[in-house]
Every structure is written in structure tokens, then in C-alpha cells.
Please model this.
Amino acid sequence: MEKKYNNGEITIVWKPDLCIHSTNCWHGLPSVFRPVLHPWIEPHGADTARIIKQIDACPSGALSYYFNN
Model:
């Protein structure tokens, strides 16, 4: 299963089956990754560069992204 969240520039892809719950995402960028809310990813919570940097720190590969253009 995949869930996708779009901010206009990028689409954030979350694969929950791969997630190891390291908490890197929400400790590193809590304005985007908010585990107690639904949906838990707010793609407009930070600029694209910060989101990409945080996704790149995901140890499991559960988070990824692609550019929309």
C-alpha cells in the first residue's frame, strides 16, 4: 500500500508496510509529519527543500518523493 501527499512541487509517498517507526520524520520536521493527526502528513507544512532533506533521512525507505514536473 502507498499513500501520497502533494504540495504542488513534489509528491510525498509513504509506504506504511516499510515503516520501522524510527520517529526521525516527526522529530525532524513536526510541521509536516504529525503522527497524532489524520492525515498525518501535511505537505504544505514546510518548504519543499526541508521536506526533501527530512525524507532523505528516513532509514527504512518508507518515505520517498518525486517531483511533479
User: Anything to note?
Assistant: Residues 48-56 form the longest helix (9 residues). Helices lie at 24-28, 48-56.
